[in-house]
Amino acid sequence: MELILRQLPIVINALNEGFVQTLKLFSITLLGAFPLGLLIAFGSLSRIRLISFVTKFIIWIIRGTPLMIQLLIVYYFPGLVLHKPIWGGGESGRFLAASIAFIINYSCYFSEIYRGGIQSVPVGQQEAGLVLGMTKWQIFTHVTLLQMIKRIVPPISNEIITLVKDTALARIIALQEVIWAGQAFMKGSHGISGAIWPLFFTAFYYLVFNGIVTVMLAWFERKLDYFR
Amino acid sequence: MAILEVKNIRKSFGNIEVLKGIDFSLEEGQVLSIIGSSGSGKTTLLRCLNFLETPDAGEIIVKGETLFNSADPTTKSESQIRQKRLHFGLVFQSFNLFPQYTALENVLLAPKLTGKNNLEGRAKELFEQIGLADRMNNYPHQLSGGQQQRVAIARALILQPDILCFDEPTSALDPELTGEVLKVIRKLSESNMTMIIVTHEMEFARDVASHVIFMDGGEICEQGEPKELFANPKKERTRQFLAHY
Fold first, then answer.
1. Measured between beta carbons, which residues in chain A are less than 8 angstroms from residue B156?
2. Using a CB-CB distance cutoff of 8 angstroms, which residues of chain A are in contact with residue B96?
3. At B5, is the secondary structure helix, strand, or coil?
4. pTM, whole model, 2 decimals?
5. Fewer Cβ close by (within 10 Å): the C or N end of chain B?
6. How far apart are CA B189 and CA A191, in angstroms?
7. What pLDDT shows up at residue A225?
């Protein structure tokens, strides 16, 4: 116990550094996947059969395979084919590859939630917009969108909370996120080796952060309570 | 000259022919009631007039301008339709107010989006007219069904349609609330608004309408002056239908 207390400040410092990387991956995934997911949702809702078929096929591939494999493929496959790495070396290259894999993966999940949200808005809303002379785009942005957002907050919240924990998968391409930082103390890092407790301790980071995320999402949900 | 001429409108969904050639015309200031049992094609006819459905055949002419002609593909382009449908207003059975906007915002949204600003004054007049001046900052879910439907009427009126259509405007309302909606429609008829009302309120149709069409099986079975049609229906089918009321 005394040993742990002595190691604690060093470990926390290292884990904080790792957690910054976790947070960066989390944020960039949301920033990318929110809009891309909407685009994919439009694709799967398209009345042009080819577009909706291709979109649904891509969604099937992405949702049907593990994110961990997708990370490995995005990171290593281009190098295998082109015989030179495209992501650049080091941590920034790993981060770029991880971001792309996460954004693609999460936008597919988001797109299905968006699609459900859009389809659950009564068709009468769109018809009311049409007979009032609005364009389809105006109807989407001024009528449908907010109603859709209100409906998808609970399922999207689930995905966001899963994403916080899924960032740990980037460990597979050695992205130096919080799990990586915790695990490093087993092999040896910052003068500490053979310690497994820092790895267990990383769970605390996820737990606290998800607590904050949950409170923020609940606040957002309440913000939209003013209409039904 | 007739404000509206409808010629030989036909519409099928799959193998089911819902409208089998509808012809009628309407003079300015006239109130037309369309009655008939469910599935007779009344609502589809209204939806065709408002371009929510595209007829398979026929013509729609408003004030001498051909808005739709099945033989002329240029009358089917989407951007043109958006302009043309503004000749008509439509009030839905289920109101379809936008829930995230207040009553006033519901009325002003479409004008704002189409570049018609400075209609706040006009909107407030309309709220006076429908008797909801004190409720215009409420959200739809804070209003009763009858109040919501009156807001929907104001929302249609602010765009100044030539012809205002009602699709069973009171069918989703408690009997207690139908009166306030019918009162507003009645006032509109007194101010010479041209209207087409699909309704199951026979008494109302008899009082307010200047012309009644009885539809059956996708065709106009009988039409005429309301007093005459309700008192002495000529067709057996009309008699059967009216016997239910």
1. 131-132
2. 122, 124-125, 127-128
3. strand
4. 0.89
5. N
6. 89
7. 95
